[in-house]
Amino acid sequence: MTDSYLYAAARTPFGRFGGALADVRPDDLAATALRAVVDRAPGLDAGDPELAIDDVVWGCANQAGEDNRNVGRMAVLLSGLPVSVPATTVNRLCGSSLDAAIAGSRAIECGDAEVVVAGGVESMTRAPWVLPKPSRAYPAGNVTAVSTTLGWRLVNARMPQEWTASLGECNEQLAERSGISRERQDAFAARSHELAAAAWDAGFYADPLLGVVAVDGVDLDRDESIRPGSTPEKLAGLKPAFRADGSITAGNASPLNDGASAVLLGSASAAGTLGLDPVARVAGRGVHALAPQEFGFAPVEAANKALRRAGIGWEDVDAVELNEAFAVQSLACVDAWKIDPEIVNAKGGAIAIGHPLGASGGRVLATLASRLRETGGRYGVAAICIGVGQGLAVVLENVSASVTGATAGEATR
Description:
12 strands, disordered C terminus, globular, alpha+beta, 10-stranded mixed β-sheet, single chain, two-stranded antiparallel sheet, Peroxisomal Thiolase, Chain A, domain 1
C-alpha cells in the first residue's frame, strides 16, 4: 500500500439559486472545475492523448436533468481533455464529491492509479421537475410534476413516515434533542458570513493552487450567497421556515446553490508527473449511518472513525471543515466532539458560501488543505452530513508539517 496525496484543487464561485450561474449547465460547470485543476499541474499536458490521469471520479446528487448519464464523463469531454481519460459518477447525495475523493484516494493507495481527479457538481437552479412514468398508458387521473432540487421525491410508500420528513423538520427535531437555541444558531450563522467575507477580502479563496476559478461568460468573482453585514440581531428577525414555533430559518440554514469543485489526487511518485509538490496526505477516512431523520448528527462518528484510522485523536487536530447544512447540526457535531469552536470553519462555511450538493465535499476538503498550509497545522478533519442518515469524513495531514516533525498545536505556535 502507498499513500495518497492532495496536490491541487479548484472550484467555481458558488452561485445563488436563480443567480449568476443560473444559465450555466451543470456539465459545463463541471468541465470548468475539472479543466482548471488539471491546468494547475504544470507537468500535465492537457492536449496529450496519453494524458497521465488514470481516472476521474465525479460526484452529483441530482442526475435527473442535464447532469444525467455520467456527468463526470461529460465533463471530461466538454473540458477538452483527451477522450482517453475515463470517468465515473458517484452519488452519496450531499457527500458525493467527498465520496469521490475517498474513492480516488483508495484507488491510489491500492496501486490501481497514480493520478485521479475527484470532484463534483450541482446546479440546484436547473434541477428539473419530473413526472412519474405510468405503468399503463393514458392514466385517467392527474399526474404531478415533482421538483428534483432538494429532498425526497417519488417516495416509496413502504418507507416509514418519520424517515421521509423534510430536512428542516429533521433538524428541528435535532434542536429539540440537543437543546440548541435559536440564538446560538443565529450567532453561528452570522459568524459564517463574517468569516467568509473576511477570507475573500484577504485573498484566501484566490489561492493560485487551491482557490476559486472564474466561469467563462459569467460576471461572478466570489460566492454569491455571502451577506457581509449579517448579524445575530438581523437574523433574529427572520421567521421560522419549517415550524411556526421552530428555530430554523432561511438565515441559519444553507441556501440552494450552483457550483462545481475538483481536487487533484496522486501518489508520492506522481509529483514528478504533475510538476507539483503534494500539499496534504489523506491520513484517514470514515463513513457512518444513522436513522434517516438523524442525518445531521452522522458526521460525529464518521469523523471519529477517520481519526482512529489515522491513528490520532481530537487533541491532535488543528483545523476542521464541517459542511454547514444547518447551524443546529453543525453546533450539535461540534458540541459532541468537544473541540474548540474557533478551529471550525475559520474561513466561513456553507451557510454563507453555499451548498451546491454534489460540489460541497470537494470544497470542504480543499479549504481544509488551504487552512493547514496557511497556518502550518499538521492535522485537519473535513466532514459532511448527508441526507437519508449518513456522514463522511476525511483526515488530512499537512505534508510540510509532517516533514518538519511538528506536532499538532506546535505547528501553529
